[in-house]
Input
Amino acid sequence: MATRTIVEAPGVARRRRLDETYIGEWLMTTDHKKIGVMYMLTGFFFFLAGGLEALLIRTQLAVPNGKVLSAEIYNQIFTMHGVTMIFLFVMPTLTGFGNFIVPLMIGARDMAFPRLNAFGYWVVLFAGLFLNSSFIFGAAPNGGWFNYAPLNELTTACGNAVMCTPGMNEDFWLLGILLLGISSIAGSLNFVVTILKMRAPGMTINRMPLFTWMTMVTAFLLLFALPSLTAASVLELLDRHLGTHFFQAQFGGDPLLWQHLFWSFGHPEVYILILPAFGMISEVLPVFSRKPIFGYTFIAWSGVAIGFLSFTVWAHHMFAVGLPPIAQAFFATSTTLIAIPTAVKIFNWIATVYGGKVSLKVPMLFALGFIAMFLIGGLDGAALAVVPFDYQVTDTYFVVSHLHYVLFGGTVFGIFAGFFYWFPKISGKLLDERLGQVQFWLMLIGVNLTFFSMHILGLLGMPRRIYTYPGDLGWNELNLLQTVGAYMLGIAIMVFFWNLTISLRSGEPAGNDPWDAYTLEWDTTSPPPHYNFPVVPTVRSRRPYYDKKNPDIADWKTATH
Amino acid sequence: MRMPYFRGMKRWIIPVVLLSSLLFAACGGNSPTILNPTGPVSSQEANLFWFTLWVATFVFVVVEAVLIWSIIRYRERPNMPQPKQIHGNNTIELIWTVAPSLFLFAVLAGTIYTMFNLQNISGTGQRIEVKAVGHQWWWEFDYPNQNNIVTADTLYIPKGTVIQVDLLSNNVIHSFWIPSITGKTDVVPGHVNRQVFRADQIGEYRGECAEYCGTQHAHMNFNVVVLDQNAFNTWVSTEQKAAQNPTDTLALQGQKIFKTTGGCTGCHGIVGVDLNSFTSDKTTSGLPTTSLVGPNLTHFGERDLLAGGVLLSSNGKDWAEDPACQLVNGKLANKDSCSLYQWLHDPQAVKPGNDMVIGSLTDDQIYALIAYLESLK
Output
């Protein structure tokens, strides 16, 4: 019988494989936690880029007839600010939270498709670098984040005038968005399958944590909304390079087709950006109020209702394009309807705080700030459904104010609530409480200085997307105020990154459960081991870890769900 | 434990409110504000705004008050017992689902009612029809029932008469907006949108393009001049005439430059010079008028705005401080001429990306052209 012998050269160490080195481990990882961290790092990197662009915009607009940026550069900067913040900061960061937290929350050991997960991340990173590489060519997208046709067409579609977009600017936008779409579809499929199939024993749909709920609704929204954007982008590429005329009026195409396709993605997208933040604060509020969430079922299902309704409201972005009045009445009604589940959520959050034992730690401050600011964004959003008023303020700074109250006062506050809440789990260290409070108050004041006055500026007739304005229209003081507020926000973000740096180096050790929390992710070490849980937990209520810590008064003994 | 932060907030909230109301009062003297409506359309829009604002303010104050009160009342204090573990209450859920619905549907009813009635307006005399054409980046106004007058940058309308503006574009999407008089309607290639409104006060108003339309979107404004009926009729009869040949020698020289070395007729029409009439489909040189991509200059001298408002004559302060302007001030009559000098000297420097191309002219040639253009009243 032949025997195989392995001869190892004595004294020579085996060469380490790539995935055993520190860098290689990250490059080749399929661990949902590492991928989640990479998503977040990437998101925060682009947050800095988009924030820098915002400061450039505000510097240009600080005084009338500003000379900091030329018209062309300004248009590239404001377009990339929107694209970066939406597609490269908020979406990757929220996906990062979902990646890290959701499998832990539902007691799973990883996402359903770990390799697909890694693929999704790397596509985001390269799509982001691709989009931003356009700056090297001086050809960053310059058509606004919505990239309207026919401005995004090549010269020949532009009639007498010759100033459409002959350069590569729009090609960067279209190809970048297609790439990001691929990543989002991969990620969403992964979330849907993970959440539906990999929950721990006993965790029924109606016992899932609300962040998991909202991540699932978001994933479904992406799956149904993205095809429309992808189709629009492909049609536009065909128009630009293969001579089709989908959006060109003089050849029988229709520019409004772009708007319908874009906004049937674009409005669900707005909820894609906010629903996970809803989920985050629905986790933070109960823990820091020492009570269960009030009206779990209503919060969860109002999220689902928002998801469905979000597909019926897209043309409220188009009230000024000349739709028939009956269509406008329909979209005004659907937009009014979608405000109801949103209001229900706000009331339930406040009811969670009411009667609690409210600990005003930084995650809670941000969660409460979220409610206070998102309410403003909700109210001025509902005002924009008032069609005749919308004729006046659409495409003015009023809309800029609204969307920033929702996205900054809402989503960004939510992200910071979640980040301060889960950072101990991710890193094993606590973030500094005092720096966090400084950051919170700077942000709260900064947001209102910057964005509240934009309401007034819109009422005073200042349009969006203008690179400069004359000095005699009464817009000067408000613009200066907004610039001051924007720099204040910039300082707040610097405080955050300082906090992150020193806390990573020498933060207080967090322990497994620094907040005395309720959900499964806290029932393991910080950071969690590769396999998450030594023993897969069993769930008997909506607060499994609370039950474990308080067996005598466990939820499953006192409440039926 | 953390409550001092909230005590502190009360102290600074008063100056913040004071400051913001001061700012509100300080601004807006000259603004194209929607809150000072001068026509039935903008009035209805503003009224609906005030109604919505009151509803929203009520909701805002109540909800924020409950939120802040709950935070302060239930903040963590030493020896505080664990709160009661309440999971929800269906009756309360029902109440706060129905309550906001009532507010929202009140606003929705106002919305739909106003929307369908917004353009049901009547006025004195016959409706004036105007075609507003959005170019990159200036507005052209045609009056088909007034002998097809064509002007640019300034919309003249009579007070108290219903104005019907048909909105056309052969390039990208623009949006037609006169904040004091009417909300905006987009100008979409391939669609003819219509905006109907009435202006009730004589005066000058700022109009703006509100849809992002490319590099110089910021400089696509127009003036709206509301005249009384007599003054409007006078304006129409003046406007219908062909341009007069100038008598001044400098202006005559300018006319020659316009026709020859300046190369202006390739893009611009002047009735009586290179066009036979506003309606002619051929220029005197045989080119179709549709090839004239620039504004019709027949009565240029009466215009207050230049190139979509990039050089605003009423805003002379900025330009009078410009060294180039000071250089020529001695030779030019007023700030308008100074603006025009800047424009003719280098239109691409003034408004980068616009369609205006001009050969390099000497300063003397520019002065002559200015004299001619300003004589075109």
Summary: Residues 90 and 412 of chain A are 8 Å apart (CA to CA).
